[in-house]
User: Which sequence fits this backbone?
C-alpha cells in the first residue's frame, strides 16, 4: 500500500507521471468526472487549513467521489484522547483514502502504518507538506515545460518555511538548477538543508539579502512571508521589512517570463498590484494544487488494490533512545515504538526526521 | 457574470421568473434532481448560520450538485489574515458558485468583484440578506397569488431588522401595497427607509405601537423579535414586551386568510401555540427559502456561461474619502479602493451603502 | 413514522431483520450503492462525536445518499436559542432523515415528535445511544452466530456506562444469557438496572471485582474505562486501577473464541498489545456500527412512506409535576408539555426516563 508522507517518497518518474495525469485532467475534466465514483475521501484535519482541505475535497468531488471528515481537533475524537493509530484504524472501516493534517510531526506516518487504506500527508507541523510541493512543481512545469537549468529564487523566511525546504529537495533531483537564496541573515536557509540537500546533490546556489540583486536572472521567484516575531533585533526588522514586500517597482528588471509564486495565504508581503501582472502565478498554483491532488488520489487508489504493504520501516531500527523533538508524534502517541534510521552516520527519528 | 448582493439587483421580472421556477421545482422535484450534476457550491460562512447554510447545501444537493465549505471564520483562512478578495480568487479555482455569509458589510460584493464565478450574498452583517427576502416573497406568493394590493404588517424591531427593510424594498415595486408598521417608538422604522423607500415609491403606510389596532386588516403579519437590550428605558421595555409576543388570543380578530411570517429562529416572541393555526406560515417560509435558493442557483449558473461581466462599479466613482462605517469591509480589506455612488445628491459607499 | 430513540423500541424480530440486512450489505455492498440515491441525511450533532458522526455519514454515502449537518452546538442555531422542536421542523423541510446527538436527555425524542421525517438518536447525554448497541449486537452475532446461552462479561465503569446498561437491556430479551459484572464497588451496576432489567428478565448474573475470576468462562468481554475522578477514595483508586487495564497476560486463561469489545475511544485501559490478538474485536465493532446504521437508514426510510405516526405518547399522561433531572430536555425546551409513564407503579419522565 503506497502512502505519501514526504514528497521524496515518490521517484522523479512518479512525479512526472503525476504531472502528466494532472495536465490531462485539466485538458479533459469530463473524462475524470466518475473516476472515483463510490469512493470516499476522509479529510482528517487536526488543525484548520481551509485552502488545503477544500482543495482535497474539491479534488475528490471532481473525480465523482464523496467526502467525510472534520476541520479541527476540537470536533474530533482527539479531544477525548484517542491515539492517531486508533483514528487511522477506525477511519479505515469508513473511507477509501485519508488526507491528514496534524500539528504533530510524524502523525500522518503513524496513521499510514496503522491504516488499511492510503494516507496522504496534508501537512504535519513544521515537518512536511508534500502536496504543496506537488502544486509548486506542476506550476513551474506549466510555465517552463520542465525543471532542468532553471534559476529559482526563494525570498523571505527560508529558515522556518517548510514549503521552501521541500521544494528545494524536489528540485535537487533535476539537473542544472540554480538556487538563489534571498533572506535577512536571521532567516537564512538552515545549514543542514544546504549541506544535506543542496551541496549533496550538487546544486549551485548563492545567498543574498537583496531581493533586487539577482532579479534579472530569475526564472522563478518564490515569495514567503517575513514575520516580525522571528527577529530578536526589532530595529533590524524595521530596517528590513519593506525590502521583502514585493511591489511592481521591484520586478521592473525581471524577465518577462519569470514566474512569481507564493504558497498563500499572503498578508501584505505581495502587493495586490502584482496580481494583474502576467508573471503572477500564485492563483495558478492553487489550481495546480487541485489538479495534482486529483492525480495523486487516482494514483494511490489504483496502487491500493495491490496488497503489498510498503515498508518504510524496512531499513529502520528500533530505538532505545526516545526522540527529543517536543513536536514529534512520539511524545503523545500511546505505547508507540521508537525507530531511527541512519543518515550519514547520524541517527534520525523515523517519524519526524529530527536528529536523535 | 451575475451575482446576487442585494435583492433589488434583480428586476421584478427576474423575481417573477425565480418564483415560477421555484413553484415548478416544488411540483416536479424529480425533474430537477440532476440539473446541477458535476457542479460544486462553496458555502463560505465567516459567521455561523446553520439554517441558511443548510438551506443552501440542501438546495445544491437536491439539484444533484455537491458542496464544499466552512461554517465559521475560525476554521477558515480568514483567521490567518487572508483577504476576502484572495479567498474569492482561490475558491474560484475550486467551485462553480459561492454562497457567502460575512460579518463585514460589503464582503460578498468584494468577493463578486474578484471571483470568476457567481457569488450569492447569504447575509453580510446588518446590510443585506437577499435570499431571506426571496423566501419571504415566495411564501406570500404561495399564499396570496401575488403582491398587488396586499396589506402587510411588520411587527417588532423595525429599526435593526434587515429582513424587514429588505422586504419593504422588494414590496415597494408592486402596486397598491399598504404597509402597517407596528413597533415601540424605540424600534421604529428608520426615517431613511420611510423617506427613500416607502415615500419615494408611493406606498401607503401607517405607524402604530399597537399589535391589535390594524390586526383585522392585515393580509400578512411579519413578526420579528423585540430585544430588551435595545431599550434605554428598562421600565418602558417591561411595560411593552408582552404586547409584541404573538399568542392565539391576539389573532382572534385577524382574517382567516392572514399569513403569519417570521424569519426564525424565534425565542419566545411567537408562541408555539400558534404553530397549529392554519395561518402560521413560518415553516413554509423555510421551505420557500430552499426552493428559491434552488431557482437562484439554476439562474446564476446559467448566466455564468455568459462571459460578460456585470459591473456595479460602472456608475461608481473612486472616492478619496474613506467609508466611516466600522462594520464596512473597507476597514479590513487589504489595499481596497474606495468607491461611492450618488443617491439623491448624497454620496454612499458602494460596499455597505452607508452615507459617506 | 418510526424513529429510533431507545434500542428496545425495536422488537427482537426487528433487530434480527436489521442484522440480516447488515450482513447482506457486508456481502454485497455494490447492490446497496444506490439504495438511498436522492435522499439526504441530516447529522445534527449538538456535541462533537467524530466517530459516530462519520459512521452515520459514511453509512448514508455508501447507500448513495448525501449528507448535510453540523458537528457542534456552537455552529448551530441552538447558540441563538432555538428550540429542538423548531430545529426538527426546519430540518424536516430539508432532509429525509435525521441523526441527532444532543447533550440533553430526551432531545431526540422531542425532535421525533416534531419532525415529519424519521429521527435516529445518536446519543442523548447519559440516556441512550441505541446505534452503539446495534453495533455491539451485530459484532456478537458475527462472532457467535446468535445470543442465546452466551456468557457476557462487562468490565470497568458499570455505574455510568450507558453502553453497558443498553447492551444488557438488549441481551435480556434472549434466553440463557449469563452476565458477569466486573467492577470496583464504587462503579457497580446500579440497583435499578439489576432489579428492572436483569432480575425482571430472569437473566443469571454474578458480581465480582476481579477481572481474572471468571475469565475462562466468558464468551464476550466488554471493556470500558475506569476514570479516576469517579472515586472518592483515591488510595482505593490507586490500588485498583491497573487491575482493570487489559493486557495480554490477563487473557491467558480466556477461551480462544472469546470476543473482546470496547465502545472506543480507549485511552489506556486496553493495551495496544491486544490489538493483534484474534480475540480483539473493537475495530470490527466500528465496522459493525457502519453496517447497522446502513441497515437502519434503509429500514426507517422505508417505513417513513407509511403515513401512520407512531405514538410513544399513547400510553403517557400529561404531568403537572415537572421532571427534576437537570439533564432533561424539559428544563430548556420552550413551552414543552410534561408527560409521565407508569413503570411498576412509579412515574417516569417520558423524555429522560428519570423517576419523577
Assistant:
Amino acid at each position: 500500500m503506497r502512502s505519501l508522507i514526504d514528497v521524496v517518497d515518490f521517484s522523479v518518474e512518479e512525479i512526472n507521471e503525476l504531472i502528466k495525469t494532472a495536465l490531462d485532467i485539466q485538458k479533459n475534466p469530463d473524462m475524470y468526472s466518475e473516476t472515483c465514483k463510490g469512493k470516499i475521501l476522509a479529510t482528517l484535519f487536526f488543525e484548520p487549513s481551509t485552502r488545503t482541505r477544500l482543495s482535497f475535497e474539491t479534488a475528490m468531488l471532481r473525480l465523482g467521489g464523496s467526502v467525510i471528515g472534520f476541520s479541527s481537533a476540537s470536533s474530533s475524537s482527539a479531544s477525548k484522547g484517542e491515539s492517531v493509530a486508533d483514528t487511522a484504524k477506525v477511519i479505515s472501516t469508513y473511507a477509501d483514502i485519508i488526507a491528514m493534517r496534524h500539528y504533530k510531526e510524524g502523525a500522518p506516518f503513524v496513521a499510514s502504518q496503522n491504516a488499511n487504506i492510503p494516507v496522504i500527508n496534508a501537512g504535519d507541523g513544521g515537518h512536511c507538506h508534500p502536496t504543496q510541493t506537488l502544486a509548486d512543481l506542476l506550476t513551474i512545469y506549466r510555465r517552463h515545460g520542465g525543471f532542468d537549468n532553471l534559476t529559482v529564487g526563494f525570498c523571505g523566511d527560508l529558515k522556518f518555511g517548510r514549503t521552501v525546504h521541500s521544494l528545494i529537495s524536489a528540485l535537487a533531483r533535476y539537473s542544472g538548477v540554480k538556487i538563489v537564496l534571498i533572506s535577512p541573515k536571521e532567516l537564512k536557509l538552515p545549514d543542514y538543508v544546504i549541506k544535506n540537500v543542496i551541496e549533496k546533490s550538487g546544486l549551485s546556489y548563492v545567498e543574498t539579502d537583496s531581493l533586487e540583486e539577482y532579479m534579472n536572472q530569475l526564472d522563478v521567484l518564490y515569495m514567503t512571508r517575513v514575520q516580525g516575531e522571528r527577529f530578536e533585533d526589532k530595529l533590524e526588522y524595521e530596517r528590513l521589512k519593506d525590502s521583502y514586500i514585493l511591489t511592481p517597482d521591484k520586478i521592473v528588471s525581471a524577465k518577462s517570463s519569470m514566474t512569481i509564486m507564493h504558497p498563500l495565504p499572503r498578508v501584505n508581503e505581495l502587493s495586490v498590484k502584482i496580481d494583474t501582472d502576467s508573471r503572477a502565478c500564485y492563483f495558478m498554483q492553487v489550481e495546480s494544487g487541485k489538479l495534482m491532488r486529483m492525480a495523486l488520489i487516482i494514483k494511490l487508489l489504483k496502487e491500493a488494490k495491490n496488497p503489498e504493504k510498503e515498508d518504510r520501516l524496512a531499513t529502520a531500527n528500533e530505538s532505545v533512545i526516545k526522540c527529543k523533538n517536543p513536536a514529534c508524534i512520539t511524545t503523545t502517541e500511546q505505547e508507540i515504538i521508537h525507530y531511527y534510521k541512519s543518515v550519514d552516520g547520524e541517527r534520525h527519528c523515523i517519524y519526524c526526521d529530527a536528529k536523535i
In short: Chain C touches chain B through 26 residues (CB under 8 Å).
